[in-house]
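Problem: given the chain below (354 residues), write out its structure.
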Amino acid sequence: MAEYLLFATERYALPILQPLADALQAAGHGVHAWFVDGAANARLPAPVRMVSNAREAVALRPRAVFSAANWVPTFVSGPKVQLFHGFNVEKRDSARGHFRVRGMFDLYCTQGPATTAPFQALAREAGHFKVVETGWPKLDPLFGPADAQALQWRAQAGGRQVVMFASTFTERLSAAPHLYAQIAAQVAAGERFWLLTLHPKCSPELTARYRALAGANAVFVETEQLVSAERAADVLLADTTSVVSEFVVQRKPVVTFRNRAPKPHMIDFDASEQLPQMLQRAFDPDDALRASLAAYADAIHPYRDGHSSQRVIAATESLLQGVLGPLSRKPLGSVLRNLQIRKDLGYWGLAARS
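Solution.
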């Protein structure tokens, strides 16, 4: 039985890692999780075993390390596999955002053609990592068996249309402060049922205001329940959060408030009082909008079989067996980053040999 390590720095990584943990365990492997920073108090359910510190992680000598963060402790043994914490939603330029290569990972498991092609170009140039398109483990449950939580929310809706609201924590891009009054009015009217969620990094005060809207016409959705909410909702209302892309993979309509890079598959608007009309349009999409939704979904994540986790495991094994070819030495800049990681994690012992 091989042992694998899952690494995360934020709570929103848990729904990304859980399907992969399930797939590894189903294949008879041991799974351990090491959560630090914003995810430090989170857990994955047994039989996943939690690692509490760097020394335990090194002593584990995992066959591979899967990270849903933009960094990973390189002193732990095994190839380092990047799973991504979200889709590329163009919050910032590519040099600082989704396509930034930090010299820590050996394998990038990409979500779909829109991500694969740029990373393949980077891999040819750098030589120190490989790229395999696998789909994203987080979305496996989106296309899996019936979701009990999603069914429960649909039952609570009582036949009403269901709207999901999600917002990024980036203050300049967040719709949550601007749309609160309109959403509160919609919830109070009760015409539709609302699933409300905010990024865990949003201010406690703002989160408390949205939590207070829960009642007969709305529920507040925790970070770990996002995929269930995406399955339950008919339409998404959001901003520049990556939840937009996750939702679109289902070919369902999205309404966006002041999206940083609006596209044809979005119903984008910039005045809060327009919300009722925008929602109405989303619930009655025309053929052009449906075609745009399908085209974008195929570009970012064409996989609808719920088996991306198994493809990640297969790609990792191909790397380990040398099928993907040799890797060149990591760049010098990564040495400095690795020293900073050691300092942050309080580990100055020997690195484990892979």
